[in-house]
């Protein structure tokens, strides 16, 4: 028997798209595979003492915060993957924004390193903005 949240997701997908249950199940499984791949691709978290590490804190729309250390050489994609794996927001429905100086980080920059994007302080605060 399928877990209730999965069944709810299938029913919602079917009602929105008019798809069959089989198509909805396939879409849910595809999403789960993508999230598993993102989780597996996350780089190891560097130690607090690492000089090349930056702690990124992201304020979520519900006011909670998610934080993790990355190397300055890690790609922005790793931060997006970290947010996606944590749940709470659908992938590709948001952007990450630094408040001051204001800067929105977009899909086109996913391949850039954190250092190239100016995220080089010991700790950086961002917020998640739904688009």
Task: Summarize the helices and strands and which ones pair or pack.
Elements: H1 4-17, H2 21-41, E1 53-59, E2 65-71, H3 76-86, E3 94-98, E4 103-105, E5 123-130
Parallel strand pairs: 1-5
Antiparallel strand pairs: 1-2, 3-4, 3-5
Helix pairs in contact: 1-2, 2-3
Helix content: 25-40%
Strand order in the sheet with the most strands? 2-1-5-3-4
Query: Which regions have little confidence, pLDDT < 50, spanning 5+ residues?
Result: none
Shape: elongated
Task: Provide the residue-averaged pLDDT.
Answer: 84
Rg on CA atoms, Å = 17 Å
How many β-strand stretches? 5
Count of DSSP helices?
Answer: 3
Question: In what range is the share of β-strand residues?
Answer: 15-25%
**Structural class, from helix and strand content?**
alpha+beta
* Main sheet attributes: strand count, strand direction, barrel closure: 5 strands, mixed
What's the end-to-end separation, in Å?
35 Å
Question: How do the helices and strands follow one another from N- to C-terminus?
Answer: HHEEHEEE
């Amino acid at each position: 028997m399928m877990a209730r949240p999965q069944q709810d997701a299938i029913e919602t997908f079917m009602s929105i798209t008019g798809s069959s249950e089989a198509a909805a199940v396939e879409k849910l499984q595809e999403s789960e595979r993508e999230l598993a791949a993102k989780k597996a691709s996350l780089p190891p978290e560097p130690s607090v003492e690492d000089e090349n590490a930056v702690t990124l804190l992201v304020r979520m729309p519900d006011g909670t915060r998610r934080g993790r250390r990355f190397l300055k050489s890690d790609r922005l994609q790793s931060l997006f993957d970290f947010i996606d794996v944590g749940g709470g927001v659908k992938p590709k429905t948001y952007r990450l924004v630094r408040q001051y100086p204001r800067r929105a980080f977009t899909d086109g920059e996913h391949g850039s390193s954190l250092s190239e994007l100016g995220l080089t302080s010991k700790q950086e605060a961002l917020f998640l903005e739904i688009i």
